[in-house]
Amino acid sequence: MTFPPYTTNLQRLGHWALWLACGAILVFLIAPVLVVVPLAFNKEPYFNFPVRQYSLRWFDELFGNPVWLAAIKNSLLTAVLATLIATTLGTLAAVGLNHRDLPGKRLITALLVSPMIIPVVVLAVGAYFFFSKLGIANNLLGIVLVHAVLGVPFVVVTVSATLTGFDLGLLRAARGLGASPVQAFRRVMLPIVWPGVLSGALFAFATSFDEVVVVLFLGGPEQTTLPRQMWTGLREQLSPTILAAAFVLVVFAIMLLLVLEMLRRRSVALRGLSE
Number of folded domains in the chain? Predict the structure, then answer.
């Protein structure tokens, strides 16, 4: 015998009240983001809402101005390099932390995740003084290294979550059949944990691509990224090109969320779980 989830009018009223409250909170959170969408297509050279005339003028400025193109190029280059470093180191760290008998496991985990907790400005100031002595304070290398540090915690967390319940006996069986440690990882473990690896890489890429504080401390004139160019534009001139760039970032974030949801479903399917 099956029973309806809500048997009384009070329960039904509470159900709809909860839905309305959640919907109101969602609208409150995303309303500022939704305002950016029409403003990015504003034809007039200043912020005007509601929009009277629509145009792609500011997107032409975004992708046609050498200053903005250089900023986009620096952001992509920095994010890709930082993601490669963070993904490699974070995955190896998560695999090592998966061993139950690892001494100091909690301390190591806390140290690896600490960049996610420490304010970015503190990390940026420390990196500036440390890298100044190494001569890479106003260099792309310094920015990439700090962005990689910021991305490692996301890779460690996602890969560690994917490794939960992983049977280490599979690796021992592969080693018993003659596989090297690298071959066992590449052919046995990696096909299982790759959704977590890719999810962490996407988080690391988004963190680097959207970061501005570290770039302000460590970046020179030639290392201007897209967020820094937007920040500079807000200080010096309120050009609607900033809104066009913000619209591109919003679309990028939506695509990232969709990919992460696909990876989550893929991970669930690989584990044979049902929701």
Answer: 1
> What is the SS3 string spanning 51-119?
CCCECCHHHHHHHHCHHHHHHHHHHHHHHHHHHHHHHHHHHHHHHHHCCCCCCCHHHHHHHHHHHHHCC
Instruction: Evaluate the CA torsion angle 96, 100, 106, 110 in order and state its sign.
Output: positive
**At residue 215, what is the residue type?**
V
Determine the Cα–Cα distance for residues 91 and 123; give it in Å rounded to an integer. Answer: 22
Helix (H, G, I), strand (E, B) or coil at 257: helix
Give the CB-side neighbour count of residue 174, counting CA atoms within 13 A.
Answer: 16
Any idea what the CATH number is for the domain that residue 196 is in? 1.10.3720.10
Quick: pLDDT tens for 63-82. Answer: 888 888 888 898 999 999 99
- The boundaries of the domain holding residue 136 are 65-271
pTM equals 0.79
